[in-house]
Amino acid sequence: MKQLELFPEFQPNYSVKSPQLTMTVDALHSWKQRIFEHQQSATSSQPQQQTLFELAPNPCDPHNIDPFALELHNLSFCDKPDWGDRTCLYFVIDVAKPTPLLLYVGETHRTPKQRWVNHYCYGYVGSYIELHRRYSLDAAAGIAFWYGAPSNRKQRLQLESELIYKWRSPFNKECWQWWGQPFGK
Known about the structure:
- There is one protein chain.
- With about 180 residues, the chain is of the alpha+beta class.
- Helix content is about 30%, strand content about 10%.
- It has a domain at about 70-175: GIY-YIG endonuclease.
- It has a four-stranded antiparallel beta sheet with strand order 1-4-2-3.
- A hairpin with a 6-residue loop joins strand 2 (about 90-95) and strand 3.
- The longest helix is centred in the first third of the chain and has 20 residues, at about 25-45.
- It is globular, with a radius of gyration of 20 Å.
């Protein structure tokens, strides 16, 4: 191939791509099980004991936010009219049994629709669902919104980060060190 570089008129009109490796069904089950076990332990971990001065729970405490308890929307929510400019945290969740998983945690100061359009996570979810379909496995990915997020961006980013590390959501780049990036670029 290097010799052909000397003669540009003889270079091929195609590019050679390295083959995309596909996760086996056993590897997929193992990957999901490890994430599920971590997230189950995160669910069962209790917040620290409150002092007498903390009579009301802090709604922005990551231990008080349960993504699995929020209303789940179809990922095609972008096709619907916008819900207005509302700051929020959002969670991409696969609720398929027996291993429901929190796949991604995000924040936005724009509308969720504006944030989700062209988001890299959307491609990850597509690849994730495609692999499940290849093996005839259930996948039920949706998105949930939590509108109690602080309007202060620094505080909102801090809360998002705490939730990412609590749940170790596999599509967040901060968590690739634990789960890899099997559905990424």
